[in-house]
Q: What sequence folds into this?
């Protein structure tokens, strides 16, 4: 009885694991006409970049050294990505 129950639980766990690790991709066939190639290129073009807001939580005021390091990191990030 225990062996059947263990086998059933193992089978269910394996099914859930495989379902969770699977991909949800669909394959569509496309024709190679020039019009569909242009549509595909337009569809895959990257949209305009959206402005990103990042919020950084600082340390307590008595931890001045850590806050200074965080400010330096933020400054380096802003220098590397001026568009943000």
A:
């Amino acid at each position: 009885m225990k062996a059947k129950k263990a086998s059933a639980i193992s089978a269910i766990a394996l099914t859930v694991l495989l379902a969770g690790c699977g991909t949800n991709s669909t394959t569509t066939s496309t024709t190679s006409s020039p019009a569909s190639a242009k549509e595909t290129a337009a569809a895959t073009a990257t949209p305009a970049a959206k402005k990103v807001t990042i919020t950084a939580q600082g340390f307590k005021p008595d931890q001045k050294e850590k806050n200074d390091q965080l400010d330096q990191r933020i400054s380096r990030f802003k220098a590397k990505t001026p568009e943000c």
